[in-house]
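User: Sequence recovery, please. Input:
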């Protein structure tokens, strides 16, 4: 064997990695492509168009804006795939333009299919009946016109500031003096974007901007309208908070939120037009390059269809409502502390209800034996019952400590409100460690019991948000295990004081040890494989892009370890490379529920190890966030998680298999049985709940029979 053949491959080579941003765009394309699945109800398909549009908004507001900041700051470094910042922006623009063209075509096709299926129709004002046009005239005059503000742009009136994601009309006109001029009209967001035309015989809607366009003469009396073109701005909305010298993080985040509203424009969507005057006017005043301008054939801002699909009388074109079931291991939520003390409980949302987690905090708030409640909050719902319970607990005199993450992107304002409410109620509110986001999901309840102090813990993979818990797949563990309890106390002491990191019993924390724990677990599989055993890893997460972790997985693959990855979103690892990653497969599940759980299984020579975590394998999670990684230890729970993972691996309904070139191929059943992991999991939860109800009825019947005999 030659010396060259003995050399280990260089795992830093750019061709072994995909670009993060382009990988994300491929994920969003998978979301958009769900709108093409004919077996999905029409309005559910329309939701996928809206989701992909919303995702793209945030992508430009944060990721693309960040790249422009790097470019303007002169950043020269290459990403792991070998691309410069300039190259990334060029490729993003190309891929995003293609995606938005596809989005427009899909939207037009879906609306046509909806009309043909007897559903609502979206039409132009001129296509409405005489009665409909009369109704629209009255609606415009009485409701729309009073809230419109035409903003002329000339030497004395500068171009107005236009808010992020607002829809506007650029109006080219000739004034009463015969001078050509420009004006801007903002489409009011306080009114319905899709307006139902009530007198129409068939249910019909129009776009609000079309109604305003048809009546522009009323806004510019004495002027002649030459052209009206709709446009929409997406602005840089990433928070820039420098924490090193901040005395009051709350005030600093509030200041940054005010600055966010005035971020630089990073994308302009504009209705397709040949009007170069309007195009140049907008590009110049918004300081946009050609690649930041996206011409759209059809309506702008498909996110309006979220509200459209939620309107009354839309049920014929939607799924049956999804109803979370009573948990298999906790069908009754009363006396939770007694139940948890008896045995650990594993919860799987949204198939199983999130109510036990809410009840866990509510019962703790009202239980006279509970002394303290400690919890982390990253994202919560707008009317959170958990926050209400924490406030009530503090008012009841319990020691309540809550870490509220102020820098949870786009939830900052909501979290500031909750933080202030909790402080007012008497809770101790923490804002985390300087320079780190706290993303861990943990609740600790300290209870005085006859045999002493007992600690009860909830650990989860997802947020304490009762709304998203009906949509996102997440798992959680309720336990009274003393070693978990000691770790939970140490964790909160570390966050609230100056305690040094302890020697953990069960938990692993980022950024203090989680990366090393991952390496240790993978190295163990490598050692087993090299000694002739079977190395095997199954890992499910939202994103995989940490370069050193990917290199460790490549090392494991080269040693013969079989690695099956289930990664919903970004994946910069390249599978199927001969001699490098040929033992690694990557699949992405996109379906009715948003896959959010982080689950990890290691064969460990037959003595299987299972873990859950709040963390994806991304640099930010391992280096810059407070995260928790925890073991699942009972044999029953290990078996349950393994079965769930196997179901995901066998999915051939919503599964997309990643190819070595970075593209994804949708898995199909062929002539075999169609298996939707999400559908199967929901069905299993329903069967378990029905079986419990059947047993309850039988027990009640027997008990009634005994009473009658007496």
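Assistant: Recovered sequence (710 residues):
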């Amino acid at each position: 064997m030659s010396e060259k053949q003995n050399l280990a491959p260089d795992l830093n080579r750019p061709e072994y990695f995909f670009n993060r941003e382009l990988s994300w765009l491929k994920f969003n394309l998978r979301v958009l492509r769900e709108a093409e699945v004919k077996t999905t109800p029409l309005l559910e398909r329309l939701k996928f168009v809206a989701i992909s549009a919303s995702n793209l908004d945030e992508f430009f507001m944060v990721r693309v804006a960040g790249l422009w900041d790097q470019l303007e700051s002169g950043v020269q470094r290459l990403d792991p795939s070998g691309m410069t910042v300039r190259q990334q922006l060029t490729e993003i623009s190309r891929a995003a333009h293609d995606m938005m063209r596809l989005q427009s075509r899909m939207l037009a096709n879906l609306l046509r299919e909806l009309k043909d299926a007897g559903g609502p129709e979206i039409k132009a004002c001129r296509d409405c009946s005489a009665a409909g046009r009369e109704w629209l005239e009255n609606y415009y005059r009485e409701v729309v016109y009073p809230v419109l503000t035409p903003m002329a742009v000339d030497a004395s009136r500068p171009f107005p500031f236009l808010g992020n994601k607002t829809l506007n009309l650029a109006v080219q006109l000739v004034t009463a003096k015969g001078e050509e001029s420009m004006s801007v009209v903002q489409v009011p967001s306080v009114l319905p974007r899709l307006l139902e035309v009530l007198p129409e015989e068939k249910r019909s809607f129009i776009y609000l901007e079309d109604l305003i366009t048809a009546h522009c003469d009323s806004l510019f009396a004495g002027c002649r309208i030459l052209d009206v073109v709709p446009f929409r701005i997406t602005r840089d909305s990433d928070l820039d908070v420098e924490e090193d010298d901040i005395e009051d993080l709350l005030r600093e985040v509030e200041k940054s939120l005010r600055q966010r509203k005035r971020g630089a424009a990073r994308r302009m969507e504009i209705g397709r037009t040949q009007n170069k005057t309007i195009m140049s006017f907008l590009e110049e005043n918004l300081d946009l390059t050609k690649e930041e301008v996206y011409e759209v054939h059809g309506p702008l801002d498909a996110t309006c269809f979220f509200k459209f699909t939620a309107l009354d009388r839309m049920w014929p074109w939607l799924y049956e409502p999804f109803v979370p079931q009573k948990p298999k291991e906790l069908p009754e939520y009363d006396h939770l502390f007694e139940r948890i003390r008896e045995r650990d409980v594993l919860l799987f949302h949204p198939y199983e209800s999130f109510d036990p987690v809410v009840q866990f905090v509510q019962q703790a708030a009202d239980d006279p034996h509970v002394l303290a409640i400690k919890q982390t909050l990253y994202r919560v719902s707008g009317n959170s019952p958990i926050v209400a319970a924490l406030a009530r607990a503090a008012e009841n005199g319990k020691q309540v400590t809550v870490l509220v993450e102020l820098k949870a992107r786009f939830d900052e304002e909501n979290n500031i409100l909750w933080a202030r409410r909790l402080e007012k109620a008497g809770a101790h509110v923490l804002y985390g460690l300087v320079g780190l986001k706290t993303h861990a999901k943990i609740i600790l309840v300290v209870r005085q019991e006859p045999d002493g102090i007992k600690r009860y813990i909830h650990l989860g993979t997802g947020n304490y948000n009762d709304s998203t818990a009906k949509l996102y797949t997440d798992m959680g563990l309720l336990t009274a295990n003393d070693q978990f309890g000691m770790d939970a106390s140490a964790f909160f002491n570390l966050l609230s004081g100056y305690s040094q990191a302890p020697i953990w019993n069960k938990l692993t924390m980022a950024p203090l040890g989680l990366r090393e724990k991952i390496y240790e677990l993978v190295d163990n599989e490598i050692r087993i494989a090299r000694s002739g055993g079977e190395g095997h890893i199954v890992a499910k997460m939202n994103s995989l892009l940490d370069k050193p972790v990917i290199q460790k997985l490549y090392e494991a693959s080269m040693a013969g370890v079989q690695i099956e990855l289930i990664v919903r979103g970004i994946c910069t690892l390249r599978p199927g490379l001969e001699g490098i990653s040929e033992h690694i497969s990557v699949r992405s599940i996109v379906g009715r529920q948003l896959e959010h759980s982080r689950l990890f299984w290691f064969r460990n020579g037959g003595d299987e190890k299972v873990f859950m975590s709040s963390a994806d394998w991304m640099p930010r999670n391992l280096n810059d966030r407070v995260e928790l990684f925890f073991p699942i230890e009972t044999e029953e729970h290990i078996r349950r998680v393994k079965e769930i993972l196997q179901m995901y691996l066998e999915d051939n309904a919503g599964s997309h298999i990643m190819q070595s070139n970075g593209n994804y191929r949708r898995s199909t059943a062929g002539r075999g049985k169609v298996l939707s992991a999400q559908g199967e999991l929901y069905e299993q939860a329903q069967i378990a709940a029905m079986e419990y109800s059947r047993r309850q009825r039988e027990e009640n019947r027997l008990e009634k029979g005994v009473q009658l005999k007496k």
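The CA atoms of residues 120 and 678 lie 29 Å apart.
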